[in-house]
Amino acid sequence: MSTDLPPAQGTPTLEDVARVAGVSRATVSRVINGIRNVAPEIQETVQQAIATTGYVPNRAARSLVTRRTGSVALVVSGAGGDAGGEPFESQVFADPFFGRVAGGAVAFLRPRGIHPVLMFAETAHARDQVIGYLRQGSADGALLVSTHGEDPLPRLIVEAGLPAVLWARPARPTPISYVDLSHRAGAELAADRLVARGCRRVATISGPFDVRASQDRLSGFQDAMARYGHPYIPGVEGNFTHDSGEAGMHRLLAEHPDIDGVFAANDLMAQGALLALRERGRVVPDDVAVIGFDDSSAATASRPQLTTVRQPVEDMAGEMARLLLAHIEDSDFQVTSVIFPPSLVVRQSA
Amino acid sequence: MSTDLPPAQGTPTLEDVARVAGVSRATVSRVINGIRNVAPEIQETVQQAIATTGYVPNRAARSLVTRRTGSVALVVSGAGGDAGGEPFESQVFADPFFGRVAGGAVAFLRPRGIHPVLMFAETAHARDQVIGYLRQGSADGALLVSTHGEDPLPRLIVEAGLPAVLWARPARPTPISYVDLSHRAGAELAADRLVARGCRRVATISGPFDVRASQDRLSGFQDAMARYGHPYIPGVEGNFTHDSGEAGMHRLLAEHPDIDGVFAANDLMAQGALLALRERGRVVPDDVAVIGFDDSSAATASRPQLTTVRQPVEDMAGEMARLLLAHIEDSDFQVTSVIFPPSLVVRQSA
DNA sequence: GCACGGACGGAGAGCGCTCTCCACCTCGTG
DNA sequence: CACGAGGTGGAGAGCGCTCTCCGTCCGTGC
């Protein structure tokens, strides 16, 4: 029986719904959470009461007792001290990569009613803030993307016993789950393509040597070329920027004018290389074939468009989210890693 | 006196701190929140107890009583129904613009201990989810970036009486605060520059006519040129993509081969125009000067680099955050709008 | 016909915090 | 010297929800 009492002022609570439906708070709670059997007709009555009152459960009250917030932190983390310089937030987002990560994570989390809280951790202070945030139960766990291998945050998180999943293997061994790409396999894909095109004198523009992924891309490429009978691959070191790619290509051409293929460790550098090649009058891909890495927006903005190694970033981010939820649900969930295979996106440059 | 009792298991609570410090819960709360006078020596004792217990206030418990969460939603919103198509999340982040907005908002919010929750609202269902999220008190308000003028979300938010601030003026009048750019002033800057360079036969590649900002950029440019004695400005309509800029430029050149200046409504289209011009053998900026809009990463990736109108996106996003906090603190805060002036970033293309 | 078990709804105890009283103590003042 | 004002700390009532008990009721089997 619905005893129509005057509606309470303010936002309705469970109590109000219970009164309208003529049942107890507990029953309404059961209906909402779908736990245990509640007689169908009572369920119906309760649903109706919820509709008429416009009831929405209060998140804070619920988390207080369940010890779950239904949100996770998405942390972009650097390795700096408390130095100045350009605002970290703007640097981070200059790279659409983070957007893809966010998009991939959201695609997985959203259907589950979970939303990511955006955080940055580039200074010691900011790191403490992140840890504090997690410790005070504002989020159930963290998805962590480090821009630098020496990032201390993973260790701090492990020490605090907080659930978290990393993007990419941490530089120093840490008992924490992560998702990564097989950079070596990606480099092999590039080597296969260049060789298949008939390139005989290929060179590389690598990323910084102190970045793990750079090393893997370089050595993977060298090893694959060695298997094809090319033991020596000229190379220059770039720093993942457009300009370093352009400069690197000029250097390469100066020392090895007969180059007919280039593997750049990311698209930005490949784009720079394209520019240098044009300046030197080389036609891509006829004179020199170029392959990038990442399949970023630079790949399609370049002319010719870049053939490039694609990381399934969105899928990888989704997997991070999946692992994080597993860790949150089950604190005994084993620390694990998932390595994704890259694919080659063939466009015009090779 | 600190009566050293055995530490409770699990995370310490106010109660635990109080026991260790030998005071009441209320006093600890006062010290933490800095309210009313507490004798300095007791403050000291309490601080020490907090340190030794490693106490962190529980967010849920606090919000339950304060009715504040200390977080805001950052909503990227479309106008679609429940149609399929490419995942909205990936589309959104293909554009680094959203990253800049997020960065600007975070720069303002973070020092205040507030973190944004990332949400998307491209379908009716997703919109309900956002409203529900806000209504259940998961966030204190929303920063809203609509990708489409007809977005129904602003209205829904107003109806629900939730604090929110929009990016850009809503298409239909809505009593809600917003931050916008003076697109007309930006177009004038471009006109001034082209005229100052001596261009006499300028044309435009505009954005879609059904987007308010496109209209303003176009009419602002036309009006400014009219003041300079150029009553007729040829133009084509693009859709803000690289390809539409390229195609548009080809059309423009076909119909008006003597063009010596182009104003494109965004950088991506300007970049496309650059490509078309090169194909037709026109030298930029000597034969044809090109000006873009947005100062996006495309502006610096192009060769020559683009002269472009810059929106102070980060500042604008920061202002959104400021307004939102004002609305949250004071529900009587007047609905307002803040219009930012653009600036011209001169590079090589004009 | 009666006991027993299972299905179902209600009562009530918290979750950890804030904040309003209220009691107390110490001054200052008439 | 008494009294009031003002500064300080404590007690306790919730905030809205979940979840464990527990009681009730009905159906079933011997």
Question: Secondary-structure blueprint of this entry?
Answer:
Two copies of one chain form a homodimer.
Chain A: H1 14-21, H2 25-33, H3 40-53, H4 59-66, E1 71-77, H5 88-94, H6 96-109, E2 115-121, H7 124-135, E3 142-146, H8 153-159, E4 164-167, E5 177-181, H9 183-196, E6 202-206, H10 212-227, E7 235-237, H11 242-255, E8 261-264, H12 267-279, E9 289-294, H13 297-301, E10 307-310, H14 313-329, E11 337-340, E12 343-345
Parallel strand pairs in A: 1-2, 1-3, 3-4, 4-5, 5-11, 6-7, 6-8, 8-9, 9-10
Antiparallel strand pairs in A: 10-12
Helix pairs in contact in A: 1-2, 1-3, 6-14, 9-10, 11-12
The structure holds a DNA duplex (30 and 30 nucleotides).
What does this structure look like?
The first copy, chain A, starts with 13 loop residues before the first helix and ends in a 5-residue tail after the last strand. The model of chain A is unreliable at 1-8 (pLDDT under 50). The first copy, chain A, has helices at residues 14-21, 25-33, 40-53, 59-66, 88-94, 96-109, 124-135, 153-159, 183-196, 212-227, 242-255, 267-279, 297-301, 313-329; strands at 71-77, 115-121, 142-146, 164-167, 177-181, 202-206, 235-237, 261-264, 289-294, 307-310, 337-340, 343-345. Chain A contains 14 helices and 12 strands. With 350 residues, chain A is α/β, with parallel strands linked by helices. The longest helix of chain A is centred in the C-terminal third of the chain and has 17 residues, at 313-329. Chain A has 3 domains: 14-57, 434 Repressor (Amino-terminal Domain), CATH 1.10.260; 71-180 and 314-341, Rossmann fold (3-Layer(aba) Sandwich), CATH 3.40.50; 183-310, Response regulator (Rossmann fold, 3-Layer(aba) Sandwich), CATH 3.40.50. In chain A, helix 13 (297-301) links the parallel strand 9 (289-294) and strand 10. In chain A, strands 2-1-3-4-5-11 form a 6-stranded parallel β-sheet, with helices on both faces. The first copy, chain A, has a 6-stranded mixed β-sheet with strand order 7-6-8-9-10-12, sandwiched between helices. Chains A and B meet through helix 4, strand 1, helix 5, helix 6 and strand 2 of A and helix 4, helix 5, helix 6, strand 2 and helix 7 of B. The first copy, chain A, binds a DNA duplex (30 and 30 nucleotides) through residues 13-15, 23-27, 29-30, 33, 35-39, 42, 57-58, 60-67.
